[in-house]
Amino acid sequence: MEPQAIGFYKQALELGLEGEMRRDALLCLGSSYRAVGLYEQARETLEIGMSEYPDYNAFYIFFAMTLYNLGDTDLAMEFVLKKLLETTDDESIKQFSRALDFYASRLDEVFN
To answer: For 58, which DSSP code?
Structure first.
């Protein structure tokens, strides 16, 4: 039902949603675009959401999934790792936060 949902989300946004309703519609629209393979539209929509709602972490995760679909796996992993480090309470992950933060943007580097 994703293709049908896209039309409803677009229409709702065109009517001038605000606040949490706009945030949720942008996220769902971006997610729906991704689900049907419209990756560039997903990227654009999720970028709008991230710029308007920078503290809403779900945008970044769906954006990372979209980057993966677009073949930008390094940046996708960087987004996921950064958000994980920002949001986790898991002590075993926090213990290695400096290393994970360092490696997040260097996944293909080899250190000898």
So the answer is: H
Domains contained in the chain, CATH given: 2-104 (1.25.40.10)
Query: Which stretches of the chain are assigned E, i.e. beta strand?
Result: none
Report the pLDDT value the prediction gives residue 1, as an integer from 0 to 100.
Answer: 85
Q: For the chain, what's the residue count?
A: 112
The CA distance from 27 to 84, in Å, is: 19
In terms of Cβ atoms closer than 10 Å to its own Cβ (0-12, 13-18, 19+), residue 70 is middle
The Cα 13–Cα 105 span in angstroms is 34
In b/e form, how buried is each residue of 1-37, taking b as 16+ CB within 10 angstroms? eeeebbeebeebbeeeeeeeebbbbbbbbbbbbbbee
Q: Is this prediction's pTM over 0.70?
A: yes
Sign of CA dihedral 53, 59, 61, 64: negative
The more confident residue out of 112 and 34 is 34
The answer to whether 44 touches 67, Cβ cutoff 8 Å, is: no
